[in-house]
Amino acid sequence: MRPVPDLRIYLVTDAGQCRRRGRTVTDTVRDAVEGGATCVQVRDKHADGAELLSQVVDVARTVGEVVPVIVNDRIDVFLAARRLGAPVAGVHVGQSDLPAAVVRDLIGDDAYLGLSAATAEELIAAQEQGACDHVGIGAVRATATKTDAPAGLGVGGIAQLAASTALPCVAIGGVGAADLPALRAGGLSGAAVVSAICLADDPRAAARALRRAWEEGR
């Protein structure tokens, strides 16, 4: 049985946002982990395979021994990074990607597998399949970082969905520090953030504030 990754402050990277702040993805991730981010998902929908592999390997070699580094969607990139010896921990897929059971077969039993879900039916299916370790539920509110994100459900709606599954749940979609105490009190295992860290003037301080807000939800 795999241990559940520490999902409390789950950074999802956005290369464009990092560039707008004059930083690389790796610089942003390093600072965020030093500030208290507990998990990192490398996501770049615009990068080709070689570019994304380079980004994943760089991030994993920088923080992968400290926090889990998860690859968004690209199972081939995850496998290639492992072949290169980078400490990548798993992958995250959506409902329109390869079926979770197939992904599990490809990545092996030792890797984390996260799955996006937006409805009770999707959560029930995820639990019944038994392939994934945790689910990302969203969106909390409308967000510009994911063009195909579902309509915002609010903190209450996310908590209600999370209560319908035994799988650890992380909330995503327009999440800020002010949401974290209520999300934790609502039974979530963590919160995934993009802009709150990638667009921050100081990613380390932003991650520290998010971690503090999460702890206040006890």
Automatic annotation (TrEMBL):
CC cofactor:
Mg(2+)
Q: Which residues are involved in binding Mg(2+)?
A: D73, D97
Which pathway or pathways does this protein act in? Answer: Cofactor biosynthesis; thiamine diphosphate biosynthesis; thiamine phosphate from 4-amino-2-methyl-5-diphosphomethylpyrimidine and 4-methyl-5-(2-phosphoethyl)-thiazole: step 1/1
Query: Which reactions appear under catalytic activity for this entry?
Result: 2-[(2R,5Z)-2-carboxy-4-methylthiazol-5(2H)-ylidene]ethyl phosphate + 4-amino-2-methyl-5-(diphosphooxymethyl)pyrimidine + 2 H(+) = thiamine phosphate + CO2 + diphosphate; 4-methyl-5-(2-phosphooxyethyl)-thiazole + 4-amino-2-methyl-5-(diphosphooxymethyl)pyrimidine + H(+) = thiamine phosphate + diphosphate; 2-(2-carboxy-4-methylthiazol-5-yl)ethyl phosphate + 4-amino-2-methyl-5-(diphosphooxymethyl)pyrimidine + 2 H(+) = thiamine phosphate + CO2 + diphosphate
Q: Which CDD domains match?
A: TMP_TenI (cd00564)
Enzyme Commission designation: 2.5.1.3
Which InterPro entries does this UniProt record tie to the protein?
A: Aldolase_TIM (IPR013785), ThiamineP_synth_sf (IPR036206), ThiamineP_synth_TenI (IPR022998), TMP_synthase (IPR034291)
Entry GO terms, CC:
cytoplasm
Molecular function via GO:
magnesium ion binding; thiamine-phosphate diphosphorylase activity
Q: Which residues form the Thiamine phosphate synthase/TenI domain?
A: 9-197
Q: Name one GO biological process term.
A: thiamine biosynthetic process
Q: What does this protein do?
A: Condenses 4-methyl-5-(beta-hydroxyethyl)thiazole monophosphate (THZ-P) and 2-methyl-4-amino-5-hydroxymethyl pyrimidine pyrophosphate (HMP-PP) to form thiamine monophosphate (TMP).
Official protein name in the record: Thiamine-phosphate synthase
Natural source organism: Actinomyces ruminicola
